[in-house]
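idk why but the lab printer keeps eating my pages so im just putting this in chat instead. protein + adenosine-5'-triphosphate:
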Amino acid sequence: MAENTFMVEIVTPERILYKDEIQFLVAPGVEGELGVMKNHAPLVAALKIGVLRYKDAAGKPQQIALSGGFMEVVDNVGRILAETAEHGRDIDVLRAKAARERAERRLAQQSEEVNYTRARMALQRAIARIKASEPSI
Ligand code: ATP
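predcted complex ->
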């Protein structure tokens, strides 16, 4: 293991999205952003819909769209269990933009047919995917 890296695993009900050494991550905690580096104290936290940013072992910035879940950090292993997760480079941006527009249209309607909570969550997922697909700063 390189001196400044720790292991991270990102798992969804469908697949293991990622398992590798990284230098640093910032996760979208429900109570704010959570930064983790090597030798972080043990942690369990709930995550909201958003973008997970990390620096891989080579120091390259990367982004993953997450739709909520949990993160545990213990003994230099970070485990993230998310409902869905996609690498920024794999995101279908047109699909995410279509999902955003659909959700915005639903939210603009005054109708008993619309499930506003569901539409708000869909909008947040779409925004997170669009952000994760954009170059990281
Ligand atoms: P849509 O309305 O476009 O299906 P959604 O937010 O309802 O979006 P989810 O239910 O969160 O989609 O995800 C279903 C599956 O599709 C998951 O495996 C997720 O990783 C994948 N997925 C969703 N949107 C995208 C996207 N824009 N690019 C790549 N994969 C996606």
